[in-house]
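Just curious. Protein, please.
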Amino acid sequence: ISGKARELLEVKSVLRDKIPVIRRFSGGGTVIVDQGTVFVSFICNKDAVPGLQPYPQPIMAWSSLLYDEVFCGAGDFRLRENDYVFGNQKFGGNAQSIIKNRWIHHTSFLWDYDMVNMTYLKVPTRAPKYRMERDHSEFICRMKDLLPRSAFIEGTIKAAGTHFLLRFVPCDAIESSASANFMPLSRMLTRQELEAAIDAEPESLLSQSL
């Protein structure tokens, strides 16, 4: 929600190719979303996990223990500086939002991706140390190279079942029960906002690109 498009995106390419840009309501980094992305979200009351303090790092550590069960035997899984990695390659980006009585921890998993799409992203100025200035081709990896998609989904449901009582709900039931007064904070950026981001780039950066 606090990210600046000019620092995170190749804005001219995004505009040229008409790539939709959504400003997400939570924290975390910028991610490419396509048919190869798998989302997992935990939306919890503050007391939903006994003994868990509702702060960023305790929630992050709890989530890594849950995914330890999912990825057991699939690779060298670990939590590194708020990212899920196999070895030193990232495959899952995390974001959180915490309010007084609730928190959300959601992850964008790179099941698969088109490397061309990654060129819309800049290397962020606040990149994790373990990235060591690597470009996207060296920094990220595909989950599909390590385990079947069905195994990941089934493993995640099983691991979540060790912490929560699960009940499956159809998507249409969720949509029909949503409050008509709900106003989402995530929103699509307009073309005008993206064009303004180009105008706001420091002169030195513009001269370098020329």
About this structure: The first helix runs from residue 5 to 8. The longest strand covers residues 89-98. Strands lie at 22-23, 37-45, 77-80, 83-86, 89-98, 102-110, 187-188. The chain has nine helices and seven strands.
